[in-house]
Amino acid sequence: MADVINVLLIEDDEDDYFLTSDYLAQCDSPSFNLTWVTNSEDAIAKLKKHSFDLCLLDYLLGAENAIDVMANLKANQFNLPVVILTGQSDVTVDEMVMRAGAADYLQKSEIETPRFMRTIRYAMVRRDIENERLERDKIEQKNKAKDKFLAHLGHELRTPLTSILGYTELLIDDVRNSNFKQELSIIQSNGRHLLSLLNDLLDMSRIMADKLDLNIKAVNVCAFLTDIHSLMRLSAKDKGLSLDIVAATPIPEFIDTDPTRLRQVLLNLISNAVKFTDKGSITLSIEFVEANRIDNKPAQLRFHVSDTGVGMPPNKLANIFQPFEQIEDVMRANHGGAGLGLAICKELVQKLGGDISVSSRLGEGSTFSFDINPGDVEEQPKTELQLGQVQQAQSTSINFSVTGKVLVVDDLKEIRRLTGHIVGQSQAEISYAENGVKALEAVLLAEEQNQPFNLVLMDIHMPVMNGIEALHAMRRHGQQIPVIAVTAASRKGLRESLIQEGFNDVIGKPIDRFALTSLLGKYLPSSLSSDFQNDKSTKTAEIHTTLPSETTRAEVNERLAETSNNGKHVLVIEDDSDAAELLQLFISHLGHTVTVETSGSDALHAASDKRFDHVLMDLTLPDYNGYELAKELKAAQPSARITIVSGHEADSQMMSEIGIDNALLKPVTKDDLESVID
Questions:
Q1: What is the 3-state secondary structure (H, E, C) of 67-94?
Q2: Domain count within the chain
Q3: d(C-alpha 369, C-alpha 372), whole Å
Q4: How many other C-beta atoms are found inside a 10 Å radius of the C-beta of residue 296?
Q5: For a tag site, which of 143, 266, 495, 544 has the least CB within 10 Å?
Q6: CA dist 126 to 34, 129, 177, Å?
Q7: What is the residue range of 147's domain?
């Protein structure tokens, strides 16, 4: 509790004011600073100018009572603890003021008793607890907003990085650009650096939100370290450094850990060692520490990453594992970063069951040491470390023999082109679509023409119809074509959730060329197959890159609707062509026949010629007030159900008077439409 408590006394009896003032003046710890007013109006004026810790409020204030005053305080958003003072005890009054939000209720005769001071102390403690709760809630809301922002930021940044890295790689592979290879390599290097910073930022966000989980599995230690060596030896060699991996003891053949996160720690430490070492060597040593049953210590696998680099001064080591810390004394312009790498390493190592430390001498080098829990390795054979044959670097060109028809779906033109360039290095035909609606129409039309696609590469986040909705629509129409989700998102469990949605596979953005190559080889037929020995080499498909004509689309939708036994005749009245097209497509996919009209007069004409089961109508039309049109449609087709689909809230009273059945607020989903068209 504060040393000085500022108290606002609202009391219309001067004698009671002096009684309260005299008692509070006698208190030494805490001391009180008392301000006296006689009514709620003056109290509000004081509260607007000064800050108070507590309010003592007389129950009866002339024409007002305490409940009126408290309501006035709340209306003006003053939230301070209020203790009610009254001349006599009344259980009913006690209950009323407590329900109104008072901190406590006292008789004035108790002002000079110990109970008065206890009441004040309890009220102040409850205020502090409530303030702490509000502060926690505020921090929690800020963290949720930050996490949401970072997730959105990650998606937004990965999309342009896909183009930057992908097109740069294509330019590097083109022999015509050999004179610019160095400049292009700089662009590629900096693009990858930007991607690594983004990954670090998102990883740190997950760690701080406690949303980063491990995927523990059996790991062959020798094979794992061989992979680490093959990944990093060229980086070291480029600077004239040697990279050695040695084992001080026999090590288990297999351990149980998360290989992705362990690899992330080792690559980060080795990359830092290469970055800060200009001559000499880098050594990764590993040792197995047996369990100590006497001290109840489990077995550990210990790693040391040592370099002969610039080192660090002792006074800089204490904060090196803190987020956003960098050792400025040894930083050079080409050593920039967000200062998150080592902080992430520390968090990951702790999640892997160990800890990390560093020793360093300025000008002589550094050693980072960490250990992990290898799991139950008591029965595992312990072997000498033997690195396998280092794999040669993969060729950057993609030249494989697969064929078939591939549909690339992405709302960004440059991403469509980039993906098409990669796929185009095979013998497959490529078509494009810019959203889920057009993708679905292309697939259905290709099936109608007996030229079905063999594979769809589908972006998840698109306007009009997203990738998941498009996939579901394809499956409802019996299309079992393999569909691969392409996404820039990276949240936990995303791959598993997309597979559950029905996708055959998932690939991330920026698109890894070799991962895409593997997927194409998995899902496309070989060009050596006799089924595809025809004249497919003549062209890359240009058909289906645009929407089919309105007549063709209507014919396709009518044929689809005819396949449903429960199909209804639906009239859509919408003057926005894009919105009308989307509604038509959604309703057709639900198995219904659709007629689209763009004005009220045309809708009434259609209603006079044909019976409709359901009418979906916008309220804002060029020639009619929506409610007036609904009245005339109801008179023309009394058995038809009417649903308002508008960007404005519908008037429930008008709906009831006219007999309108439902209202949907734009944007509407397929599920919204399915819920009203029954």
A1: HHHHHHHHHCCCCCCEEEEECCCCHHHH
A2: 5
A3: 11
A4: 7
A5: 143
A6: 20, 5, 72
A7: 136-208
Q: What distances in angstroms separate CA 498 from CA 40, 212, 485, one per listed residue?
A: 60, 19, 7
pLDDT of residue 453: 95
pLDDT in tens, 252-263: 999 999 988 898
Residue 286 lies in a domain: yes
Per-residue pLDDT of 86-120, as tens digits, reads 876 667 777 777 777 787 777 877 777 777 778 88
Helix axes 413-423, 114-173, angle to 10 degrees: 50
Residue 583 is classified by DSSP as H
How far apart are alpha carbons 262 and 446 in whole angstroms? 47
Query: CA-CA distance, 78 to 49, in Å (whole number)?
Result: 12
Distance separating alpha carbons of residues 339 and 310, to the nearest angstrom? 18
> What CA–CA distances, in Å, run from 192 to 158, 196, 272?
11, 6, 16
> Residue 515's Cα: distance from chain center in Å?
23
Residue 464 and residue 496 share a domain: yes
Residues 227 and 353 in one domain: yes
Residue-wise pLDDT tens digits, 586-618: 787 677 888 989 899 999 999 988 899 999 998
- Is 269 found in the same domain as 238? yes
Q: Of 264, 265, 252, 267, nearest to 219 (Cα)?
A: 252
Sign of the four-CA dihedral 151, 153, 155, 157: negative
| Contact call for residues 56 and 85 (beta carbons, < 8 A) | yes
The overall average pLDDT reported for the chain is 80
Axis crossing angle, helix 494-501 with helix 467-476, rounded to the nearest 10 = 30
Query: Which tokens is 620 given?
Result: 């804002």
Which among 639, 630, 451, 624 is positioned nearest to 534, based on CA atoms? 451
